[in-house]
Structures are given as C-alpha cells and as structure tokens.
C-alpha cells in the first residue's frame, strides 16, 4: 500500500489533491448534516460557486442527498468514508505527522485527524469520533473513567455507542462545574457517556473555583468524599487540553488575575493547572477534583486537543509525561512541528 501511494504521489500528485478536497467535503457534510450550501462553503472557506460543481458530482454518484433542509451523506457515502478512513492516514500523511509528534512530544501514541478546529466546524466532531473509538478500545469491564468538561469531550460522548466493553464501567466527573453551558460540564458529559455506553455515572455537585477554606469544608461531605475516592482509583482519564488564557477568561478571572497569568507565561491548562511553555506549573486552582498526581497514576490518559492555536498548550502539557494517547488534528500537528522547528533553530 505504501509503495503504491508513493508512486501515485509522484506520478499523479493532483489526484491526491482532488481526493483530499472531496474527502474534506464529505467529512464536512457527514458531521454537519443536514447542512446548507452557504454554511458548507463558509466551513470549507470556499465559495458557493466553486462548491456547486463538487456537490453536483457527489450527488450524481449517489454519495450525498440534497433536500430543502440541506445536504446529507447517503448510506453509500458513509460506507465510502469509512473505507477511506482506513487509508486516509497514509494517503494524506497523517501517519507521518503522528510519528513526528510521538518523537517530539514523547507520547507513546499520537493520532492525527483531518482538519483544523480553528477553521473547520466539523473538526471537533472528527476528534470526538476518533476519541470514542479509542475509548472503546482501552476501557475494561469495571473501570472507573474520569471525564473533564469541554466541547471536544462532549463530541466524544456524542459518538459513543453501547458495548460490552463498558460493562460495570463508572464515569466520574474529574472536577466541578465551570460555570458555563450545562451541556459542556463534566457532570453532564459523565451522565451522557453512561447513557450512551450502558455504564453508570456519579455526579460532583461543586463549583469549579473555590476558596481554600471551602475546599477543605466540602471534602468532608459524604457525597464529595465518595466521588473523590472513585477519582483516586480512575484507571482511565479522558480530558481536553485548553489554551491557558482562554480557559482563565472562561472562568471569569479578573483583569488583575489575567495579567498575572500573562506575566507568568500561561500557555496551557488542564485539570485546573496552568502551565508555561516549559511545562512548569505556574498556578493551580484551589478546587475539588482530579489532581495531576491522580492523572499520573492512571493506566490510560487520553488527551484531546485540536486547532493550530492549541499548539503551545499541547506541547506544554506533553512535558508532564503522563499521556498515553494524544488525539489532535492536522492544524495543531503542523503548528507544533513549526514551533519545534523554530525553537530548535534558536538553540
């Protein structure tokens, strides 16, 4: 297969470009369906005029269905995408990108998916689809799975399906509420994962940001103590990686607090810890939930983060040396390689 692809890339490179364009188009339709032509053009950063001929071709081939409410993939189209998924890693260079990231970030397994979350709305859906597949592969009967909040982990829950792998699995929120949309909070995602998979869940009814005194007081509550005991036993952790300043703003930090984080060089955040570019912890929120020490004791740490803007955050968290699997996208992967190239050039 690799030899054939190498020959194809050398003799007919334009064929691979056409395949990639149509692959991205069908991926967008799969994840956004039903989707109108204007919204699809905006998502793919092209024009409706350019898109029209491609849509007509895919329609004539029976790969997509066009109706008044929008476009969607046919069963044949979904089947074709599944077949392409198995070869896209080689065909479009995702495997090579993943191997380079494994070497640079020192993470045992890296998976790179198509797209860039920063520019493609469907990119987050693709991260979630692959995340759900990997979760199913690594989970074992009777596991405790710790889950953080965030839109990317929401997408994982959307793609999970019932399986015997999830028998007696308990999903536990890794931390309290962030004070944002309820559907993006860890409690909601844990319950959704349990409902979709056939497992069970527990809830952690505490705010995300607390004063040290309140933290100590709540740790004495029976319900909180029960969840904390489960978190300490989590064998699998699934979480998103956040941009440091973006997460601080979502948590409604004051301008003074934000300025302190800027001065300290915050580039990444995970589990309430803020990291600088060297991977050093520069600030830890007083909060209730999974600690970094708990994460490092887990057998499987599944990290998800995409978008070129997340490159520094992903690199910073990788220095914690606790991840077993990183799922990211092409945009972030290429940005990480460029950051690494620039840093190496200055040494």
**Briefly, what CATH class of the largest domain?**
Alpha Beta
Number of helices: 16
Low-confidence stretches: none
Rounded mean pLDDT is 91
Shape by Cα distribution: globular
What structural class do you assign from the helix and strand content? alpha/beta
Percentage of helical residues? 40-55%
Write down the oligomeric state.
Answer: single chain
Order of the strands making up the biggest sheet: 3-13-12-7-4-5-6
Question: Radius of gyration from the CA trace?
Answer: 21 Å
Domain CggR N-terminal DNA binding: 18-87
InterPro entries: CggR_N, NagB/RpiA_transferase-like, SorC_transcr_regulators, Sugar-bd_dom_put, WH-like_DNA-bd_sf, WH_DNA-bd_sf
Keywords: DNA-binding, Transcription, Transcription regulation
Protein name: Sugar-binding domain-containing protein
Give a structural overview.
By secondary structure, the chain is α/β, with parallel strands linked by helices. The protein has 2 domains: about 1-90, Arc Repressor Mutant, subunit A; about 95-345, Rossmann fold (3-Layer(aba) Sandwich). Helix content is about 50%, strand content about 15%. The protein is built from 16 helices and 13 strands. The protein has helices spanning about 1-10, 15-30, 35-45, 50-60, 75-90, 95-105, 125-140, 150-160, 185-195, 210-220, 220-230, 245-250, 255-265, 290-295, 310-320, 330-345, and strands at about 65, 70-75, 110-115, 145, 170-175, 200, 235-240, 240-245, 270, 275, 280-285, 300-305, 325-330. The strands form 3 sheets. A 7-stranded parallel sheet has the order 3-13-12-7-4-5-6, sandwiched between helices. Helix 1 packs across helix 2 and helix 8 (about 150-160) runs parallel beside helix 9 (about 185-195). The mean pLDDT is about 90. Pfam families: CggR_N, Sugar-bind. InterPro entries: CggR_N (IPR048715), NagB/RpiA_transferase-like (IPR037171), SorC_transcr_regulators (IPR051054), Sugar-bd_dom_put (IPR007324), WH-like_DNA-bd_sf (IPR036388), WH_DNA-bd_sf (IPR036390). This is Sugar-binding domain-containing protein.
